[in-house]
Design brief:
Elements lengths: L3 E8 L3 E8 L7 H12 L6 E7 L4 E7 L8 E8 L9 H16 L6 H24 L5 H10 L1 H12 L2 E2 H12 L6 H10 L3 E4 L8 E4 L2 E7 L2 H8 L5 H15 L6 H12 L1 H10 L4 E2 L14 H10 L3 E5 L5 E5 L2 E7 L3 H8 L4 H16 L1
Antiparallel strand pairs: 1-2, 1-5, 3-4, 4-5, 6-8, 7-8, 9-13, 10-12, 11-12
Helix pairs in contact: 2-3, 4-5, 4-10, 5-6, 8-9
Length: 372
């Protein structure tokens, strides 16, 4: 699990200094932080992300750098257990956390002490919640793990590669690095959601030194009508006027809805946020008056209103007022992560330049998956 978040910055007079950290008890070795800094600035010193293994601190550091050209060159360092990889939480989640932290840092003026103190206090609360959110992501549901795959360019690329044929882990890593134009470390963490959702089976083949990866299931992610809410609306629940408005709005939306990669990635990101996911699961059962909506069981990044506004903006929920001007929260479009048998792999295996042993093993695994 994450050990903490350490924010450092480069200054011309003092060099590398620690700006903020959470928890306060986390130990920071400036020599280690300099190693992370050097990993970033090798070359042009542009902003970006690196993963650095620190032996002294016994941790891996997922670090985001704003770049030497930034007004203040900040490094946001997520301190992980040794061997951990940020991919296990999803690159989109880490990216969002980094972006939000930088927004808080950019609000620091250096001239208004009271404002800076307030911003720093808010930032530390955010760091606390960010770590709690990452900890919650260890217990993702199956549909969240599928969303994790869909939300990541790296994971989508793996899926595209394995659509072609089975590859050894080493071969997959080489093809993936060439496709992305970047080094891929700890690929087993990136593959973890594929294994846990049973999309990919790992197996050894006699005579080969590396483990092979076989695609035995595929999936798609799209919006669908919220079954329970629509069923209630047909019964004029929660009221005739609300039910009528809801059914009309849903009908209008799905009359023109076409799934796209951009939209599917967007809804995947909503599923990955544990607080938003709690509301989606809750609203699958029925609509709620806004003032009686149960709170998320977790401390949220945002307050309830902000979370709901974000979901409404992405057309996942809709807030409708009744005749008494009471706001009701409806699940407007549900999200479906549907797995299916990859029948296309049979032809791909036949056409691929595979050794006989690999092709037979893949066909055997597909036969078992089909029978299940």
């Amino acid at each position: 699990m994450p050990q903490g978040i350490v924010i450092t910055k480069w200054t011309h007079d003092k060099g590398m200094i620690v700006d903020t950290k959470y928890p306060e008890t986390i130990e920071v070795d400036l020599d280690d932080m300099m190693r992370v800094f050097y990993a970033h600035v090798v070359g042009a010193g542009a902003g970006g992300d690196v993963l650095v293994r620190l032996e002294k601190a016994r941790s891996n550091v997922s670090s985001h750098f704003t770049g030497m050209d930034a007004k203040v060159p900040y490094l946001v360092n997520l301190m992980l257990e040794i061997g951990e990889d940020p991919d296990m939480y999803g690159e989109a989640v880490i990216k969002e956390i980094n972006e939000n932290i930088i927004k808080y840092l950019d609000q620091m003026t250096g001239t208004d002490v009271n404002k800076d103190y307030s911003t720093k206090k808010t930032l530390k609360e955010y760091l606390k919640n960010a770590l709690f959110l990452l900890d919650r992501l260890k217990n993702m549901t199956r549909e969240q793990r599928l969303a994790q795959i869909y939300s990541s360019k790296k994971s989508r690329s793996i899926l595209e590669i394995l659509h072609q044929q089975a590859y050894s882990r080493r071969e997959l890593q080489n093809i993936l690095e060439e496709k992305l134009g970047a080094f891929v470390s700890n690929i087993e963490y990136t593959l973890d959601p594929f294994i846990k959702t049973n999309l990919v089976k790992q197996d050894w083949i006699e005579g080969f030194s590396d483990i092979f990866l076989f695609l035995i299931s595929d999936f798609t992610l799209f919006r669908k009508p919220a079954d329970n809410t629509l069923k209630n609306a047909r019964k004029n629940v929660p009221s005739p006027d609300l039910a009528k408005t809801y059914r009309e709005e849903v009908g209008k939306f799905f009359s023109t809805y076409q799934p796209t990669i951009i939209d599917s990635v967007n809804i995947a990101l909503n599923l990955l946020n544990p607080d938003k996911y709690d509301f989606i699961v809750l609203l699958r059962e029925r609509a709620y008056p806004l003032n009686k909506l149960p709170k998320s069981p977790a401390d949220s990044f945002l307050d309830t209103r902000a979370l709901l506004e974000s979901l409404a903006k992405d057309q996942i929920i809709k807030i409708i007022k009744d005749k008494r001007d009471i706001e009701w929260v409806f699940l407007f479009t549900d999200v479906s992560a549907e797995t299916f048998y990859p029948e296309y792999m049979l032809e791909n295996i036949r056409a691929a330049p595979l050794k006989k042993e690999i092709a037979i093993k893949h066909l055997e695994l597909l036969e078992v998956a089909y029978q299940k």
